[in-house]
Predict the 3D structure of the following.
Amino acid sequence: MLFSDIEGSTALLSRLGNKYGDALSAQRALMRSAISASGGTEMGTEGDSFFVVFESATDAVRCAVAAQRALVSHDWPGDAAVRVRMGLHSGEPDRHDDGYVGLDVHRAARIAAAAHGGQVVLSDATRLLTDSQLPADVLVRDLGWHRLKDIAAPERIYQLTIAGLPERFPPLKSLGAPSSLPTAMTPLLGRDAEVARLQVLVRSGEARLVTVTGTGGVGKTRLAIATAASVNTAFEHGVYFVPLAAVRDGDVMWKTIADVVDADGDASASAVTRYLADRRTLLVLDNLEQLDGAADVVAELLAGSPRLAVLATSRGPLHLQGEHEFPLQPLELPRSAAVAGVTGSAAGQLFVQQAELVRPGFAVTTENAADVAAICQRLDGLPLAIELAASRTRLLAPRALLARLGRSLELASGYAAGPSRQQTLRNTIAWSYDLLTPDLAGAFRRMGVFAGGCDLDALAAVAMPREDTGTATDTTTDPLDLAAGLLDVSLITITAGDDGEPRAGMLETIREYALERLEQAGELASTRRRHAEHYTVVAERARDQMGYRTHLAALNKLKAEHDNMRAAMAWSLETRTDGPGDQQDAGHQRDARHQQDAGHQQDAGEQHANDQVLIGLRLGQALGLYWYQHGYGSEGRQYLERAIEQAPEDAGVPLGRATASLGLLLRQQGDLDGAIRYLERSLAIWRNGPTRRPEAMVLNSLAVTYRNRGDVATARSLLEESIAIMRELGEDSAVAIRLANLADLEIEAGNLDRATQMLREALDQHQKEGYPLAVANAQRSLALASLLAGRGLEAAELLSATLDYVVSSGDLELLANTLERSACIEADLGENLRAAQLAGAAAGIRAARNMPLPAPDAALLERFLGPARRAVPPAAWTAALAAGRELTQEQATTLLATPRPEIRPDAVGA
């Protein structure tokens, strides 16, 4: 039986108009010529379609080949392309009146309907009858198994490839392979790229086993189902979804697979693999993480069924040879709180989709966009969390919902459609936690204290099993093994840090759960202490590297761990009234039971609180320079003020260092009286200390503070005392720093030659010591001396030599001061509007970080900018100044490094 018709006949009619009749007549004539030559009998013709029967399958193939060649070579009216699709099937239909009826007739028609114009397809029955009798220039291509409309059994379809005619066609227009995939209630959002990548892996056979991994609620199952649905035509024997969340052992897994694919036999491993052995099938094995023996089952399936492909979902990989892991990340978050920012993100789109289900007409508006964006951020872009939250919009507007998200783990589903383990986020995460070994469970709990992730050193110091947590000590455990174990079940993420080393992190929702379990285990207090102690040592080590050649590594370390250090500072300042730790801390409970004397217990509690504050003093002082240089002065001031307030008067060294650091931050913020008060308190502590070096350091800080206040005489006296101490200690580098500060006083006094001599001496020492911060400061002061001496170009060159360090250091006060010095130089060289823009950029940085310009520096700036301002139209000056203020930090550094137009030395006044 042969069925044929013209593909796109309606479109062809529209194109040809009254010439369509000529084309139709020509097509009929060509078809009938081929039919007649091959011994076919025309059973029915309607419009452009034919139904023809042949006594021989070989004759039917000969007819189709001849007809297609004639059709291709014909000169069609209007240069139209008339493409005819043909389908062949062999069977035994029943005679009825003057025709044939029966399932075989319908099967032949459906096969033809699946083809494309110019294509000849045939059933397996016809292929078998003609395989050995095909012409030499005709081949057969297997197109796989396909389901046809209204026909239950799938059909294996082939294509005739005819020499000289087109061979490549789109996929057949069939219903695809047999499928047991669940039907999604809503479209899958935000996963187009992931589906496309999985399609390539699964369809091409590049990987026979692909495991989609990710944390609970990230959408692994939805992605796997969507991918499987999109590739079902590549698997002629079917695409099957096998739910395994409730399965716990391999035998039950075999039985479940057998039931889903409808395998005959006893549902044993051999029966299933025998059934699937020669079938091109895709199995979607959903939720394998809890299933003991899952890897063994999958390995046996793949070994025994060479044409089988497996798309699995699990919290972690199966670790089988040839497995392709596909980690799935949360949805893209809104990039802004504007309507477009929310609706343009996958997380925002999912929230809207789910909210519309319970609140028809819900939309993101200017009034609620910021709240929806904050909800998506708070829920880490986890699809399950967003769906659960959006289901509450039936009763709560986004703002009210956001206010109730303080504990996102409490979100419960507003409907009961999902499995019980997905009814709350807590249950979803607990699903993974309950599968952990005791050591991994303990490490996971303790990782909850990290804010912003951690490196392997911190993981070893804080999260490894130790006796004081009530867990077994295992000094042989590698922190990398712990990280790998938690990564395998998708409870943590691993990224590369700035140093190239792995960094472990947690989604906030998972971290909440870890902290909850840590508190329940009685380990919260001891773990937070270990966390704070570790990061105090990290901060102290970085502090000692700041300003030297290692400053970039130290800066990167402090940036990476700043959130952890904030968390440690917050812990150190918590008020403790319950003795040495949480009442639930198991280790301290044991201690407390032995402290029967109430006074002894109170003393222990006070000592614990003092120890906690001392950690905060150490950490705050270690971070002082970082806060000072990088725009965290206000935050650091609050931490240090609270720590100093809580510290005992006999805190000694930690208190002396902390008060000195606070004095520097207060000076930077323009509170000179407060700065002097704390610096003098620090000085009093060091006057009675065993070494004079800290005393000299505080004297130097006091001197700079008095200089900012305009008390030059006191500043000079303090600097000279500090220099004398450092000379006595033989610390040449420290002497050089103080000489540079003393040179600044000489510059202000007009003693430029003496200042230049002192700065050259200091610069030589700093360059020899490899102290780039001090080198930059000395060159900056030399540039000022040259500028005041009338050597503007020389000043520009000296300042230019500092720019690499100024930019790389991230020191915002240094950047602002360099911008101001550059503005003075540009004004002196006649680049008035550039000077205004540089000054505006500096003012913007100072305003954003609460760093007012010291009075002496303000006077210097006005000395040069005043004449420049008067030399240009007021509107132009105001515009340039405002443009500078609007620059970001990065844009300001770019402006600073942009070369000015070339200026001839003879064009500059003496």
Remarks:
- The first helix runs from residue 9 to 16.
- The first strand starts at residue 2 and ends at 6.
